[in-house]
Amino acid sequence: MGSNTRLGICSVVSVLILLMISPTVYNIDTMLQAQVITDRLVSAYWFMNTSCVDFTYGGHFNEHDRFGTPTTRAKRLKTESKIIIGTLDFYNITRDPEVLSHAIDTFYTIESNMRNLNHTYNPRMAEDWSSAIISNSRTIDNSFFIRALVLLYEHTGNRTYYQTAVWLMSFISYFHRNAAYGGYHIEVDEFGNPNFYYYPYGMLPGLVALAAGSLPSVEPRNTSFLDELNYALNFAYDEYWELPRGVIVMATHPKQQSIKVGNPSGFNRL
Amino acid sequence: MMKAFITGYFYTGDILFRDHSIEIADFIIRHYTDSNSGLVSEVTQDLSVRDSIRNSGALANIASAFLDMYIFTGNYTYLNYGWDAINFVKQYHFDPDHLGFFKLCIASGTPVNTEKWSEFQYEIMMTLTRYEFGDYPPPTTTEPSLGFLLPLIIIGGTIIVVQVLILAILLIQRGQKSVKHPR
Question: Which residue of B has its CA nearest to A53?
């Protein structure tokens, strides 16, 4: 066999080998990239479920320093709700039953410590859950909790979560809506009376719309949630959008100016 | 708000909601970018950029909303802005030495302080999951990453090395023949 023939055969064999191993090389690269992403997700998850956890009294802290030491210690409904949603996102990928049970445990922590006499939830509690720092029902916190409840129902099939979400959505519709001027009150007390101290945020109707939008995914036939969605978005469009300034986050919009008592720092935007 | 309006369009089919979400998205792209072309979290009342600060929770939220915008409008511009935002968070807000993501970074990627918020971890996780595990195309405008080039570099390098080895073997064999059978 001549040297040229040998060179040709060797070249063909080497190209074939390379063709065979190239998918493996590509897969390794993809795996490495996926590993980086997974590292980020795992890091965020473990931060939420180790550093943030209050192992003494239960629940989660919200604000921390670099090492995970809490810098504020109050418990918040919004934080707990977001932790449920984030944990269930992680469960979507891992399908680890322990991750799901962490989300469920967080729900029971809320249920046993934050529920008030009016069957809504206190948005902020003392570290040891002994007293409510804010006992009024808040639109923002309730909206996030509704989304967490819908996700819990979707993952477990337990209808209690869904019924609680519907109850909270109805509470927002009946008591958080500003009947006189439109839109939503930031908070109402346990008897449904609004607290006028705060200026209404532009993001309130947006958050209510997202909460109302999460419910039809469970029961498409129930159109009452779509009515709430329509109401919230139409109000946001009419009152919180103003060119060239854009979306107004905290507004002294003319319709409500006469009834507000607070001391706003001015206009802000998100 | 952008996410709320595009969600509203999804459930009601109301064109007003879709158009308004596009209006907000274009507004964000026009006003919420600094000289580094990155999305910033806040602008002042006169729409000037304040401090070029990047808030990880806000960026993750915007990226998630831009993904919705892409899904419902098919406009790649939104997807690319979304990828840019979440990639910034993934790269710079991440704390490689400890768990979790920082709350605030400046444009260069340096954390403003060591603050971390639990609820922002959720925003980041949700968006990262959607981008990285959903069936969405990668960004079209950014440069290909080294990870993308890695297989080509390995394959090209291997071909060159193999060919050089074969040539070297053949040359050695020729040299041996010439020693064994001198003319």
Answer: B118
Interior CA angle at A141 toward A233 and A128, to 5°? 180
Stated pTM of the model: 0.76
How far is B119 from chain A, CA to nearest CA, in Å?
Answer: 5
3-state secondary structure of A60: strand
Count how many Cα atoms sit within 13 Å of the Cα of residue A188 in the half-sphere of its side chain: 21
Q: Write the ipTM.
A: 0.72
B155 touches chain A (CB under 8 A): yes
- The string of pLDDT tens digits covering residues B125-177 is 888 888 887 766 666 554 445 555 667 777 888 888 888 888 888 888 877 76
Q: Considering only CA atoms, which of A8, A202, A220 is closest in space to residue B170? A: A8
**Cα distances (angstroms) measured from residue A212 to each of A121, A200, B17:** 18, 19, 15
Contact B181, A48 (CB under 8 A): no
Nearest to A213 by CA among A192, A203, A227: A227
Output helix, strand, coil percentages for chain B, rounded to the nearest 5: 65, 5, 30
The verdict on B110 touching A (C-beta cutoff 8 Å) is no
Q: B105: part of which helix (H) or strand (E)?
A: strand B104-105
Which residue has 């008030």 as its token pair? A116
